[in-house]
Amino acid sequence: MTMPTNGLFLTEEQLLFKKVLREYCEENIAPYYRETHPYNAPGDGYDDYYHKWMKELGDMDCWRLGINPAFGGLSGDIIDRMIICEELCRVNGGIAVHAMVQPTHGEQVAMYAPEAWKSGLGEKILSGEYSVAGAFNSPEGQVNFSEQAPLAKKVEGGWLLNGNKCFSSVGPVCDVLLVLGLTEDGTTYGFVVNNETPGLTMTVHNEIGNSPTYATYKLEDVFVPDTHAGDAMIATNRKMNPVPPAAKGFGLLVAAGAIGSMDAAFEKTVEYWKKRTCDGKPLASMGECQRKLAIMKTEIEAARALTWTAARKIQAADADAIVVADAAKAYTCETARRITDECVQMWGCLGIDPDTGIIQHHLDCMGLSIGVCTPDERYSSIATNMGLPGATFQCL
Ligand SMILES: Cc1cc2nc3c(=O)[nH]c(=O)nc-3n(C[C@H](O)[C@H](O)[C@H](O)COP(=O)(O)OP(=O)(O)OC[C@H]3O[C@@H](n4cnc5c(N)ncnc54)[C@H](O)[C@@H]3O)c2cc1C
Q1: DSSP secondary structure code for residue 242 in this structure
Q2: Please, are residues 297 and 269 in contact by the beta-carbon 8 Å criterion?
């Protein structure tokens, strides 16, 4: 087990937490990679594994650490959340996506359904007994608010939801669902429901190949009381509002996950090249191969440095935090896609054999790259926040 001990400006406590988490992941999650592989999921014990891990991670205070003290959590600090995502993604991209979603959407559940949160729902989420999923993505595009069909109509005492949502990771195993969509006047609202709510149909979509499983939702006259709804303040009049630095944190959780996944794939590849020989010599002993490994290591560390710098800028609410956070999400995820693609090739045939897990890292990094806005969308957003002429696009 190699553990970074410097360079990330973590506190002693955070380093210890990272170490404990890595030991837990290697002992309790990594060995079950095949049983929880997406081709077997959900079912065949998949749901049981995920609920068990969510609870055990809850017992280690992962979800309390991820959630702000205003909602009963312990920290809500972006760095704590990133540590959890990076460590989980080293061993299993599916549970890592749970870790990205649980605190991010958990806090939104607390904001939009405060009474339910206070009377028990919050404790279930903080302890990991319940899993939260988010259903934002519309067939017209995740942030394409100018073209999205309205989802919510105001009625007496609440809202009536009609529409479709897709690619909701965690959806198939969630207990609480945060649906986000447009009201008739073009405002983004969040609605707290669950998979048993009348009018909500969930279809599992698990053929995609990367580790999370996805739900597609059809909403037909789903009634949500006012007590479970709130203005998400993402878009007004069908136009994205300026994004506050803290809101860019979700993208950095994804970037931290991509670092964990590519780092683990790279470490496995270095070990493989130390053993795999050509003409009697280990591949890792050859000059050209060494250069390749050294360049890959350099690229991983460059991505890591940019991502953690962005997190520090968010904490400090720096003026350029938004641009640097978008840059970190885009650059790190593109690097992770490329590095894991190289790793697949460097294992030869074994690279595409699911048993080695290398292809899974690559599939997961592709998913992480697309999730929570793609690199191209991030670059468009950077152009807007750099004030380039004609640029107007903002992403989450
Ligand atoms: C691993 C994973 C987990 C996910 N989990 C969830 C989840 O839990 N809940 C949920 O709601 N959704 C989830 N999603 C969906 C995800 O957030 C969206 O797929 C993502 O934000 C991209 O949106 P889109 O698919 O609608 O792409 P589109 O908006 O359809 O974009 C299509 C293409 O056009 C490009 N493009 C569009 N607009 C611009 C622009 N202005 N500038 C430059 N390029 C542009 C994009 O880069 C992309 O290449 C998940 C996706 C993945 C892969």
Answers
A1: P
A2: no
Q: What is the dihedral of CA 179, 236, 330, 178, to 10 degrees?
A: -10
Using a 6 Å CB cutoff, which residues line ligand 1?
97, 101, 134-137, 141-142, 144, 167-169, 210, 212, 367-368, 370-374, 376-377, 380, 393
318: containing domain: 245-385
CA of residue 260 to ligand 1 center, whole Å:
21
Atom of ligand 1 nearest to the CA of 370: 53
Q: In a structure prediction context, what are the per-residue pLDDT tens digits for the chain, which is 396 residues long? A: 555 554 567 899 999 999 999 999 999 999 998 888 766 665 667 788 999 999 999 999 999 999 999 999 999 999 999 999 999 999 999 999 999 999 999 999 999 999 999 999 999 999 999 999 999 999 999 999 999 999 999 999 999 999 999 999 999 899 999 999 999 999 999 999 988 899 999 998 877 777 888 899 999 999 999 999 999 999 999 999 988 888 899 999 999 999 999 999 999 999 999 999 999 999 999 999 999 999 999 999 999 999 999 999 999 999 899 999 999 999 999 999 999 999 999 999 999 998 999 999 999 999 999 999 999 999 999 999 999 999 999 998
Of all protein residues, the one whose alpha carbon is nearest to atom 45 of ligand 1 is 377
| Residue 39: CATH number of its domain | 1.10.540.10
Same domain flag for 222 and 261? no
Residue 110: exposed, middle, or buried by beta-carbon count in 10 A (0-12, 13-18, 19+)?
A: buried
Residue located nearest, by CA, to atom 23 of ligand 1: 142
Within-domain flag for 298: yes
Whole-number Å distance, alpha carbon 208 to ligand 1 midpoint, is 15
Contact (Cβ atoms closer than 8 angstroms) between residue 214 and residue 205: yes
Nearest-CA residue for ligand 1 atom 30 is: 141
Residues 370, 307, single domain; the answer is yes
Please give the tally of structural domains in the chain: 3
Q: In the listed set 93, 115, 131, which residue is the last one of a domain according to the structure?
A: 131
If one residue of 137, 210, 361, 378 were mutated to test the ligand 1 pocket, choosing by the most ligand atoms within 8 A of its CB, it would be: 137
Q: Which of 131, 154, 173 is the last residue before a domain boundary?
A: 131
- Sort residue 209 into left (φ over 0), alpha (ψ -120 to 50) or beta: left
Residue 226 lies inside a defined structural domain of this protein: yes
CATH code at position 349: 1.20.140.10
3-state secondary structure of 197: coil
Q: How many CB atoms lie within 10 A of CB 85?
A: 26
What is the value of pTM for the model shown? Answer: 0.96
Residue 392 located in a structural domain: no
Same domain, 215 and 253: no
